[in-house]
User: Fold these one by one.
Assistant:
Number 1:
Amino acid sequence: MKAYQLVFLASALLLAAPTPPAAAQAAKQPTVILFVGNSFFHGAFEPVLSYNTAAVTDENFRPTEPRSPREHADGPWGGIPGIFKKLSDEAGFNYEVHLEAISGQTLQFHYDNALAVIKQPKWDWVIMHDYSTGPVPARHGGQPARFFTYATKLEQAVHEVNPKAKIYLYETWARADLTYPTDKNYTGLPLDSMTTDLHRAYYQEAAQNRGFAGVAPAGDAWLRAVRQGLADPNPYDAAEPGKVDLWGRDHYHPSIYGAYLNACVVLAEVTGYDPRRLGAQEQAAAALGIAPEVAVRLQKIAYEQVRAGRKG
């Protein structure tokens, strides 16, 4: 074989060879993701609130002209999207993460006030949740009709400008502060009552509106963590030895453990990546102060819950 033929053959083989995974990932444009919600995304408390803010674009951070005067006194937020971003980086994904969050607000609020942010063709994925009690039955203080209406309106708005966008619902968790004290929405009922109501609403919306790609079952994962003995079911009682508290100090928002579990659930649902692969050396857990053995169990619970949800 002549020299020029050998050169041609070598060049052809190089072009035919598969691109190394890292190089292929780096060559791709990032997947652009928008999280839409409230303090159940930003986390409310440190260290979750400001975790990994440099890697998250907070769409509501306006140092001189904040959308809401009571928001962002101390800078932009990272929250669960920030943890998700770190996990996805470690898993080798190329994601650009944005956050549209206003404390205490509903999907209707976002539709009425933040559509200019949400209705942009650049979003490849949108992940959204309603106010914590919004989807539950009216007898428990919810407004389910509003939830169904505005979840659908937001899905349609996103798909109007980007038909290929993947849109996910983020099922929130049972609030201990509405379950254990007296005269509250779920007083006298077991913890799984509110979780069941949230599950039904979020999965019903996904079932009746095929514009949604799926549900990230964070609330179901919390209940699984309780049932498996990792998490304390009642933060108002004396802490049970060896168990973590998924709720923060208000028994409402997530603690570092609840936030980390939520991020693992989102990772597993929207990417299909098995969070167990992150293992004991995972960096976000270490930065948040979560012991390696606990991080491993939370990763496993997230994997199990997402897998169970897909089978169901």
Number 2:
Amino acid sequence: MTSSDDASRAPATPYRAAGSLQGRTILMSGGSRGIGLAIALRAARDGANVVLLAKTGQPHAKLQGTVFTAAEALEAAGGRALPLVGDVRNDEDVAHAVAAVVEHFGGIDIVINNASAIDLSTTDAVDMKRYDLMQDINVRGTFLLSKLALPALRKSDGGHILTLSPPLNLDPKWAGKHLAYTMAKYGMSLTTLGLAEELKSDGIRVNSLWPCTLIDTAAIRNMPGGDSIVRAARRPEIMADAAHAVLTGGNLAEGTGSPTGNFYTDEQVLSAAGVADFRPYSLGAAEDRLVPDIFL
């Protein structure tokens, strides 16, 4: 298992930040591992306060890390961390997390909706318990965490909600491949679309971020043939750098016309930040051999 010191060590990437998250307070759903942990570590290296609301309080047989080992890594990276064991599907857990962040750090500047469940089964094959799980975590969990954090975000001098969900696309291709999962992810994206419009007058930015390629995560590795699939994936650090660029502003307003209501991709964001070579993010596969992510 990776130690907190190993996890906190900054990887070599081509991204050079134009801004900083120092002193900002982030509330993230999930974050014990994978993309969420990478995003949290990038923020911690700036000196951010990061609160992780995640279910994994005890070691899991198939999943590396817990919310507590993640918090140790964040502290080792230079941030301040608050680990909270809870389920984004549970109203009381989410309400407690929001209250704990405000009590511990004095407010909330950023909410990151990272927690998500995946099942790519067709309609015939999908188990309805899995369907309900995806709806509860992806859609309801994103809506609930965003909703309950709004009073604190309104008090921030730069409130931001960032959700890891894809651009909305009414071409039936993706719904035809895996309708249940597509509905769940697009529900997250609809939350971005609606909240961005609803919160304009409050000065709260709301955006989504999605990878152009597969990312090496436990979810991918645990799929059939996952160990071979991830060889054509990129490291989570590409999403961490892209999230950092979105959350610190960067040059993203150029070409979008608005700092809110956007569905960014990692490559789009990092290109705007001056990254021209994405090869350092790969696990060794040539760029033309990388597997594109779904929904794009």
Number 3:
Amino acid sequence: MGTPHLSRPARVAAGLLSIAIAATLSSCGVLARPDGDAAGTANAGATASGQASAQSPGSRSSTSPSPTPTPTPTPGKGPDCAAVRCTSVLVTGDMLVHAQLWDQARADALAAGAKGLDFGPLLEGQRRYIAKADLAICHQETPVAGPMGPFSAYPSFNVPPQIITAAQQVGYRACTTASNHTIDRGTAGLVRTLDALDAAGLQHTGSYRTEADSQGVLILQTAAAKIAVIEGAYGLNGQTPDFAWQVDMLDPAAMIAKAKKARAQGADIVLGVMHAGEEYASVPNAEQRDAAHALVDSGQFTMIYGHHTHSVLPIEQYKGTWIVYGLGNGITELSPTYVVNNEGLLVRAQFSQDAAGKWTASDLAWAPSVIVRGPYRWCSVAADAPQGPCAGPAADAATRQRTKTVVESMGAATAGAHELLITKEK
């Protein structure tokens, strides 16, 4: 469980042709540099685009009109794409590792004839959902220790880094890292976590090694679009980082400024991520609502989502933009006191580009989940139950209904959000 607290104090790319060419060069993530250049595929795409538009000897003169490029259809993964271009993003809640889970990982490794810790079986149920999206983003809530420990859980986390390896292996490409626990182990723990993410090949944003890094923007490339991720946490459990820039805080003005930078650097889609709220609540608090609405009002964000409360929260469509207030837990131990702590929400948004080049969320789908014990596993309780029963038919139905009631309590169903049934998809 997170630490309780008392208060909560595009620009579209130069042309469809250059987007298509850039997309063929790489499907890897892009970390935009503070100076405005983008590493990896962004620069490569710009270079390729320029070369593609240059005329070769013997071509028509520069005064002749050039043919309008034909957009390359890019339907992406997920539901049918009604537009020329679509891309989908999947997000999950807090990866909160307690001793019960690393004991399970040790038992799973031993069962496979290996030593150490294996979190793969714990996360395996998420794989089939991740496979139905172009990009999956997790939230690494706590710092990690070295591979051999020592490990600790609540209230000052220092968890096994093998959870990060498992997240990458199940299909995640990036994780957010700003939370109330980010500096539980000081700067050393923060840096150790970023090193582990880098070693696993996972992009990240929310906490930083250097001030220069903190000024950059994480931009992730899919075949159809560049997707920026901008996060902020409500607080640090009363702890003070060595440097203020080490962790992104929930400051709408700062997040909007970063979103504008992302747009200037070519981001097509900008996701705002909030780590905030009242623990075990079923409604967002004033800080969450005010911050989310401010981000939407700026016109810079394509979707907002959040975590921290260890409970599923409602989904709202505000001025045409989706706000997923709380995803609950991605993974956690089982709480005998708070049943909502054992539940989570997996959300997949499909984004489509219209004729004017603007990207919006054209489909929003959610799947309810629960953590089961004996052994510990993440398990979907969606209506199609792709893996079969979790805690049993009656318990699964109760979890699904409880989640549905909360998710739809701010009009999400009327606005078009629906349950994700992957067994019915292509």
